[in-house]
UniProtKB/TrEMBL annotation:
tRNA processing keyword on record: no
Keyword field: Coiled coil, Repeat
Region annotation (Disordered) ranges: 436-464
Tagged with keyword Coiled coil: yes
Organism of this sequence: Manihot esculenta
Gene3D superfamilies assigned: Leucine-rich Repeat Variant
Residue ranges of every copy of the U-box domain listed in the record: 104-399
Name of protein: U-box domain-containing protein
SUPFAM superfamilies, A to Z: ARM repeat (SSF48371)
């Protein structure tokens, strides 16, 4: 009972001074320094003799509430002690704050529980990855194959799983599985390696470093032809690995390019459409590294690509490869030696529905025209001038710039040729007035009138072509305007408009 005496109500401080407003007797008045809530807890402790654990350890809170109550003016407390019964009534403005504190604590508890659940899931996922990598290293070929299939699924769409599997050591055993004679094991390991390299350059480098390129070529070069599914998986892996710049020289010099060219040509009709597309994209990746161009020229790639340029679905990618090939001297020589190569590329310039093809074809022609005089002459003979003039009017902005650049190269060559033919006095002859009678056949500079007329005729051919193209362009635009205005399709422009188009010229062209 000692504890009860310690919590006795006798420890309260009461004011025994009589009330001035009372006619008789004295009343007890609670000292104003106490708060109502603290007083109630104290009374409850005294009555219950410490029976409730909720109110046992509130001495510090009681002391702080005493200090805080001195600044509170809106708390009213009345206490009446009658025959051992105590009644307390109070107003508590801090109730809303306590409710908010309770909600905040509940939210914190929920967040903490969710973080614990998330952490538990991560731990479980990591343990699963460890188990899969461990099964890749067992002796049972069946379990290794199942583990490789599991790696393929886990790393298909999970970037963190790819990184963790590589860190746990999944790549070396998967590469080692390529030595297996079982086709299913080879396919499982190839697609597992393919998924591990998706979007992860470190894994791509690690796969090549582990010897995957050598082992894939070993499968290709085996006496018995590889399974078509295995070949398709190998092509897909070469595509993924060749996306890393550091792998391009390794793959290019390994002997993979002839295999990719054979998969693209598909002479034995065993490659799927997806495999052909992957081979073409892989060859483009490899062509970015200029040293690989020489390996490509040892195959039948350039003639095959030139013949395939009519296929609009792949023409732009073909032109991308040819652009990289044309960046090397031996590549330009291989392209120019192809029969009808310039005719084919010039035809591409007229593909108004494909600006990308026009831009890439004009780039190839621009590079070749800049580097070799003989190629410029072959372009002129193939009729490139009219196509370039049309491109400067109707092509995209980039195609127009490249076409104008090619025309500049051709104009310089033509000026030199005319100057050499007439002893270098053409400019003086053209600019000087002609003296003498109309029967005179020579001018003071010694150049015959027939020669001048021939030179002027040669220089005006381009102007005539430009004039014709401008007229065609204006008429084409007029047809578009008529169509937008919903006018009849047989609408005939006025004679005034025809007169305007016949007299229009373009001063922005180089000629």
């Amino acid at each position: 009972m000692a504890k009860c005496h310690r919590n006795s109500i006798g420890s309260l401080i009461l004011d025994h001074s009589p009330s001035t407003n009372s006619s008789g007797g004295s009343h007890f008045r609670l000292w104003t320094a106490f708060s109502a809530s603290a007083f109630r807890r104290k009374i409850f402790d005294a009555v219950s003799c410490g029976g409730s654990s909720r109110y046992r350890n509130h001495e510090d809170e009681f002391s702080s509430s005493i200090t805080a109550s001195s600044d509170t003016s809106n708390i009213t407390t009345s206490a009446t002690v009658k025959s051992g019964n105590i009644n307390v009534s109070e107003k508590k403005p801090g109730k809303a704050r306590n409710v908010k504190s309770g909600k905040l604590s509940d939210l914190l508890s929920i967040a903490e529980a969710e973080s614990e659940i998330e952490m538990k899931k991560k731990v479980e996922a990591l343990e699963e990855l460890k188990l899969v990598v461990k099964e890749l290293q067992v002796e049972s070929e069946t379990k290794r194959k199942e583990a490789a299939c599991r790696v393929r699924l886990l790393s298909k769409e999970d970037a963190s799983a790819r990184a963790n599997l590589a860190l746990l050591g999944a790549i070396p055993p998967l590469v080692g599985m390529l030595d297996a004679e079982d086709v299913e094991s080879q396919i499982a390991s190839l697609y597992a390696l393919l998924n591990l390299g998706i979007g992860n350059d470190a894994n791509k480098a690690a796969i090549v470093k582990a010897g995957a390129v050598h082992k894939m070529l070993k499968i290709i070069e085996s006496p018995s032809p590889p399974n078509p599914s295995v070949s398709e998986a190998i092509v897909a892996n070469f595509l993924g690995l060749s996306a890393l710049d550091a792998n391009k020289p390794i793959i290019g010099s390994s002997g993979a390019i002839p295999f990719l060219v054979n998969a693209l040509e598909d002479l034995d009709h065993k490659s799927s459409l997806q495999s052909k597309q992957d081979a073409l994209r892989a060859l483009y990746n490899l062509s970015i590294f200029s040293s690989n161009v020489s390996f490509m020229l040892e195959t039948n790639l350039i003639p095959f690509l030139m013949n395939m340029l009519g296929d609009m679905e792949i023409s732009e990618r073909i032109l991308s490869i040819l652009s990289n090939v044309a960046s090397t001297p031996e590549g330009r020589k291989a392209i120019s030696s192809m029969p009808d190569a310039f005719s084919i590329l010039i035809d591409v310039l007229n593909w108004n529905d494909s600006p990308g093809c026009q831009e890439k074809a004009s780039y190839i022609l621009m590079v070749m025209a800049h580097k070799a005089y003989g190629d410029r002459q072959a372009m002129i003979e193939a009729g490139i001038v009219s196509s370039l003039l049309e491109l400067t009017l109707l092509g995209s902005t980039l195609a127009q710039k490249r076409a104008s650049r090619i025309l500049e190269f051709l104009r310089v060559d033509k000026g030199k040729q005319v100057s050499e033919n007439y002893g270098g006095n053409l400019c003086a002859a053209v600019s000087a007035p002609i003296y003498g009678s109309s029967s005179s056949s020579t001018n003071p500079n010694g150049v015959s009138r027939e020669s001048l007329e021939e030179a002027e005729g040669m220089m005006s051919e381009e102007k005539k072509a430009v004039k014709q193209l401008v007229q065609q362009s204006l008429q084409h635009n007029m047809r578009k305007i008529v169509k937008r205005a919903n006018l009849p399709q047989d609408f005939v422009p006025s004679e005034h408009f025809k007169a305007l188009t016949s007299s229009s010229t373009s001063k922005s062209l180089p000629f």
